Amino acid sequence: MKFAFSEISLPKRGSLAVPVYAGNSFSPMAEEVNTLTGGVLARALETSRFKGNKGDILEILAPNGLDVSRVILFGMGENTEITQTDLEDLGGTLVSRLNKSGARNVTVILDGLGECEIKDSDAAARVAFGAKLASYQFTKYKSEEESASEPSLVRMTVACKTSSGARKIFQDLEAIAEGVFMTRDLVSEPANTLYPESFADRCKELTSLGVEVEILDEDKMRRLGMGALLGVGQGSIRESQMVVMRWNGASGKKSTRKPIAFVGKGVCFDTGGISLKPGPGMEEMKWDMGGAGTVTGLMKALAGRKAKVNVVGVIGLVENMPDGNAQRPGDIVTAMNGKTIEILNTDAEGRLVLADALWYTQDRFEPEIMIDLATLTGAIIISLGHENAGLFSNNDELAGQIFEAGEIVGEGVWRLPMSKAYAKQVKSPIADLQNIGTGGRGAGSIVAAEFLKEFVGETPWAHIDIAGMAWSKKDTPTVPKGGTGYGVRLLDRFVRDNYEGK
Q1: Which residue(s) pair with 392 in the sheet?
Q2: For the segment 95-144, what is each residue's pLDDT rounded down to a tens digit?
Q3: What whole-number percentage of the chain has pLDDT above 70?
Q4: Which helix (H) or strand (E) covers residue 102, if one does?
Q5: Pairing label, strands 15-21, 2-6
Q6: Is 104 in a helix, a strand, or coil?
Q7: Which ranges constitute the DSSP H helices of 66-217?
Q8: Which of 423, 422, 370, 415 is nearest to 391 (CA)?
Q9: Which terminus has fewer CB within 10 Å in the chain: N or C?
Q10: How many CA atoms, within 13 angstroms, populate the side-chain half-sphere of residue 95?
Q11: Residue pair 166/5 in contact by the 8 Å Cβ criterion
């Protein structure tokens, strides 16, 4: 699907979409269209439930007096209350509606924004961005005869007062969308094609954007003492990997500011190991690498828009399988920082992968801050459902910055507590730590975060548990069901607002 921007004028073909505000107040262009059609728009509103509220859509076919095939009225609510997310949702909603209608081209007019705090060029770019996000499909494995029909919509033009400004803003947004799409692709891949080594190969693709990619194989990790990560993968015939991605975008090679770091859990398939998961639903464990997918997509987004910041992305890639060489409940492993860990449940494996990845990252790169992402616990879904990711941190300022970024882009996080009382639950009677808590099923997500905290040193750190957010079974305006790409937009915004160019 292609996107273009233009000054405001009536199109000569295709479909036309115009805004209506709260109380069915026409925008100037909608008023002009209503006049040219002899009041068709006004009469259509009188006989419908359309009220000009956000999300309202009304389609009018082949109106007399115009060259276009249809007019789409879209509600915007009060023009003083329009948000970035509203505009992106509008773009996604239009894509869905017009694909169902069989339309091929649409011109979206953005006028009448009035007192809206968002500039019209940014608003136009956001509509196109939402449409781009909604256009995603994962049909790689469908045969031609079984494939879903191709989307009909091939071009969207967004018209506003300053189209050149919109075009420039959209260039960055399109790069972010490509990062989101990479994450969605990775999360959607089946485990027989996406395993640690093939995932690492996908990361190498980012070198074309200027990302430096380094791969640590099992021999290198063994020499570094990464017994926690390697223990998870020892039951698989697939070799575990660690991928280090570096984007050095800060201005001038003399920049001495420490990098910021993102770390991702990459369990490419999780059977639970010897602590085997129940069969129903296990197929979903192909997306247990969602944290690593987000970090990889984020690196693509930052490099794609040439972000002026130095960033390190580290992902630990393993498979958790139950063969004769798999680690057992009761085993004790030694992490890279020298701490011993008693394995009480082999299905609490993601924290073991992150333990070595986090310590390695803070030890080697001494980052200014460090954020990890992981589909870590089912308990976070019990706590927060599929509406917010769980946020844990040892630094209030960092946690606040992540929360604010999530509010802006519509990828919510909610902070949960951490304390010494929870930390006591990961102390083992026979080793330094144990990989599940002593408190039974209670506070599982918090206890997991306390375990991770043992491997971050003094670095300001945040852990984002995305188990409820990496995959969706229903569509939203900008996220088709399946792999969501959650976290790429959140962290891109976090970087832009707090570190880029500083």
Answers
A1: 463
A2: 999 999 999 999 999 999 887 889 999 999 999 999 999 999 999 998 87
A3: 98
A4: none
A5: unpaired
A6: coil
A7: 84-101, 120-134, 163-188, 196-204
A8: 415
A9: C
A10: 33
A11: yes
pLDDT of residue 440: 79
CB 226 within 8 A of CB 336: yes
- 145-149 long-range Cβ contacts below 8 angstroms, 24+ apart: none
Q: What is the pLDDT of residues 58-93, one digit of tens each?
A: 999 988 999 999 999 999 999 889 999 999 999 999
* Domain 2-162: top CATH class: alpha beta
Residue 88's pLDDT is 98
Report, as residue numbers or ranges, the catalytic residues.
Answer: 277, 351
- The DSSP element (H or E) to which 233 belongs, if any, is helix 227-233
Query: How many C-beta atoms lie closer than 10 Å to residue 459's C-beta?
Result: 20
* Residues 6+ positions from 381 with CB-CB distance below 8 Å: 467, 468
Q: Which two structure tokens, joined as six digits, stand for 386?
A: 């599929």
Per-domain residue ranges of the chain: 2-162, 176-498
Judge if 2-162 and 176-498 fold alike in CATH terms.
Answer: no
| 248: CB partners within 8 A, 6+ apart | 212, 310
Q: How much is the pLDDT for 115?
A: 77
Provide the 8-state DSSP code for 239: P
For residue 389, which of 470, 451, 456, 314 has the smallest C-alpha distance? 470
- pLDDT tens, residue by residue, 433-473: 999 999 777 999 999 999 999 999 999 999 999 999 999 99
Helices 290-304, 488-498: axis angle to 10 degrees equals 50
Q: What are phi and psi of 5, to 5 degrees?
A: -130, 145
Residue 498 three-state SS? helix
Q: What angle do CA 114, 117, 122 make, to 5 degrees?
A: 95
What distance, in Å, lies between the first and last C-alpha atoms of the chain? 35
How far is residue 449's CA from residue 343's CA, in Å, rounded to a whole number?
16
3-state secondary structure of 320: strand
Residue 429 in tokens: 């009677």
**What 3-state DSSP class applies to 492?**
helix
CATH superfamily of 176-498: Zn peptidases (3.40.630.10)
Task: Using a pLDDT cut of 90, give the percent of the chain over it.
Answer: 93
Please state the φ and ψ torsions of residue 126, each to the nearest 5 degrees: -65, -35
Task: Give the pLDDT of residue 147.
Answer: 60
Contact 56/77 with Cβ under 8 angstroms? no
Please calculate the CA angle 85-91-95 and round it to the nearest 5 degrees: 140
Residue whose entry in the numeric block shows the structure tokens 């499909």: 137
